[in-house]
Design goal:
With 372 residues, the protein is of the alpha/beta class. The chain has twelve helices and eleven strands. The strands form two sheets. Strands 1-7-6-5-4-2-3 form a seven-stranded mixed beta sheet, sandwiched between helices. α6 links the parallel β4 and β5.
């Protein structure tokens, strides 16, 4: 029996189904503001001289800026990592201090920060007194925040952190991967200068990301992306926009299923489970602690029953079966002792009955194999 306990978690709020429907309708209102009907069936390519990118791409950017109540938006290659890199490059000079949360960074973000040569300064965003002191120092022009949790026990309110930065005159860039359309308001909707996220994680085409926010920052992103080969072409932009139309409702349903899975596991429906947490680590998921150290073996066994045992893009269009997977790398960097005891489960498009049946069968197989 494990003596390891899962830490308390502080999941971000989700979007109820009726609000998700309203988001879908709001997106379509923005679409029809910027597109005539026939334009939704055609797309261009290339660097239009007056725009520096395809006309269709510029129109989709205008839709997304309106939808997220932002001044401007830029579609970029490189998915979420590319969007974060583009925004940070446009905002922060090498050697300039950047305020970040004291927690293991997402691995590709760590590479970006190192490559840009910025001087990162850590403060615990969960500690409002420490955050206010850092902001009052006058040292920082920019802060960077990951909307979802870097540590399982993170409890800070993203909106409050952004408001504190804004009050201190510190501008903000937010990693909104795994958050946009899943929480009631993303970073830029909460007052950030920019939100950065992957459209691949929102069922869009591979490699497409978005920077959305203030005019000057988005203009800087575009200025650095001069090459024609670096543009998001019109058909990619349209495909991303089409995919977004069903994402709010899909995410809302998925959040409901996760809550049901957690509730039923906590009630003891599947033997061999000791603790349950819902967490935004990184995507919203159910953390399942087992009574034996078999977490590393469980995903491969679950795959025999139809589960995905590794992600493609964590909620990409390829991922429909429930995901049974190890803890995220940043979570394990913070709590490596969980690796043998805890798995994360994301239902994807499945219902709670299927998720629980796969877990039950997988645990039975592993225990039977051990007994033999």
């Amino acid at each position: 029996m494990s003596q390891i306990r899962l830490p308390p978690t502080f999941p971000l709020p989700t979007v109820p189904l009726h609000d998700a429907l309203a988001k879908q309708f709001q997106l379509l209102e923005a679409v029809t503001t910027h597109f005539e009907g026939q334009q939704l069936f055609a797309a261009d390519t290339g660097v239009i001289p007056s725009l520096g990118r395809p006309r269709t791409t510029a129109m989709v950017e205008a839709v997304l800026a309106d939808f997220l109540s932002a001044q401007a938006a830029a579609l970029v290659q490189g998915a979420g990592t590319g969007a974060i890199r583009a925004a940070l490059t446009a905002a922060v000079a090498p050697g300039e201090p950047l305020l970040i949360h004291r927690a293991p960074p997402y691995p590709t973000t760590e590479v970006t920060l190192r490559g840009l040569g910025v001087e990162t300064a850590e403060v615990d965003f969960n500690d409002r007194t420490a955050l206010d002191a850092a902001l009052a120092s006058g040292r920082f022009s920019w802060a960077y925040m990951q909307h979802t949790r870097q540590r399982l026990a993170d409890s800070y309110d993203p909106g409050e952190v952004l408001a504190a930065c804004r009050a201190a005159g510190v501008r903000t860039i937010v990693d909104d991967n795994y958050a946009v359309m899943r929480v009631p308001a993303c970073g830029v909707e909460l007052g950030a200068d920019a939100s950065c996220f992957s459209l691949f994680k929102l069922h869009g085409p591979e490699g497409v990301g978005l920077v959305v926010g203030a005019h000057d920052l988005v203009d800087g992103v575009r200025a650095q992306n001069y090459s024609g080969g670096g543009q998001v072409q019109g058909h990619q932009a349209l495909n991303a926009l089409r995919a977004l139309t069903h994402v709010p409702v899909m995410w809302s349903v998925q959040s409901q299923v996760s809550a049901e899975v957690a509730q039923r596991l906590a009630a003891g429906e599947v033997p061999g489970v000791t603790e349950i947490r819902i967490a935004n680590a990184q995507d919203r998921c159910v953390l399942v602690q087992l009574d034996r150290p078999i977490a590393r073996q469980l995903p491969a066994v679950a795959a025999r029953y139809g589960a995905a045992f590794y992600p493609v893009g964590s909620n990409s269009r390829y991922e429909i079966a429930p995901l049974f997977y190890r803890m995220s790398s940043s979570s394990l960097n913070d709590a490596p002792e969980l690796a043998d005891w805890t798995v994360r489960i994301n239902p994807m498009r499945a219902g709670a009955d299927l998720v629980l049946e796969i877990l039950r069968c997988s645990l039975t197989d592993l225990l039977h194999h051990k007994d033999n």
